[in-house]
Design goal:
This protein has two domains: 75 residues, Arc Repressor Mutant, subunit A; 109 residues, Rossmann fold (3-Layer(aba) Sandwich). Helix 1 runs antiparallel to helix 4 and helix 2 packs across helix 3. 22% of the residues are buried. The strands form two sheets. The protein has a seven-stranded mixed beta sheet with strand order 5-6-4-3-7-8-9. A two-stranded antiparallel ribbon has the order 1-2. The protein is built from eight helices and nine strands. By secondary structure, it is of the alpha/beta class.
């Protein structure tokens, strides 16, 4: 199997989509799947799919495609999802609560083990089977449980201070949902999920699709006139 450090980041971003389709195919009783099938489902070129999957160390077979069981193992390993990783959440608001209550992370090797907040009204409440803990106990929790990943879902104004606190507590990976770019030391890995940027892409694509459809209708009217 390939070392995940050698896989290009663009390929890494596509691997979860391959894994989702392959797992569905396995549930349907299929034993193999072709690069052409994956490419069609994801609007990619088959050569790109083959290149991405080759980076995981698995090779397709002539006429039969990729063996599904082997592909699942290879992709899961390449993504580092074959070992469970613990993470905690800072911020028990609507977004933090939704993430804490989501039970699908286990399929990705991620386990949410704790959620923290500074609001006395939220402390002690249970979300997704977890009790909301006071944020001033986070250092001892991280030290005791050796957690290295944190999810930030606090308001933008509190995000940088939260990140600074987490770094001091020993967190090495931060998944940032706050609408703000954060500064962290080079040895800390930061991944930001920008909901506004994602919606902007959706909005622009929708607008382009709408214009294509209306322009097509206009062309047909001109032809039929």
């Amino acid at each position: 199997m390939a070392d995940e450090q050698t896989i290009p980041i663009p390929s890494v971003k596509r691997l979860p989509s391959y894994l989702r389709i392959v797992r569905q195919a396995k549930e349907n009783g299929e034993k193999s799947i072709s690069a052409t099938r994956l490419a069609s489902d994801l609007s990619l070129k088959p050569i790109q799919v083959r290149k991405d999957l080759a980076s995981t160390g698995v090779e397709g077979r002539p006429k039969t495609g990729f063996p599904i069981d082997e592909l699942i193992v290879s992709i899961t390993h390449a993504l580092g999802w074959d070992n469970s990783t613990d993470a905690l959440i800072i911020g028990a608001g609507n977004l933090g609560s939704a993430i804490a209550a989501y039970d699908g992370f286990s399929a990705y090797g991620l386990r949410i083990v704790a959620i923290f907040d500074k609001d006395p009204r939220k402390i002690g409440q249970r979300i997704g089977g977890l009790e909301v803990l006071p944020v001033d106990t986070i250092y001892q929790y991280i030290k005791s449980h050796r957690v290295t990943i944190a999810v930030i879902t606090v308001p933008a104004a509190q995000a940088q201070a939260t990140a600074d606190m987490l770094v001091k507590c020993g967190i090495r990976g931060i998944w940032n949902f706050a609408p703000r770019n954060l500064r962290v030391p080079e040895y800390v890995v930061m991944q930001r999920t920008d909901l506004a940027a994602s919606f902007a892409v959706l909005s622009v694509k929708l607008g382009r699709k709408y214009r294509e459809e209306t322009e097509g209708d206009s062309s047909e009217e001109e032809i039929n006139a």
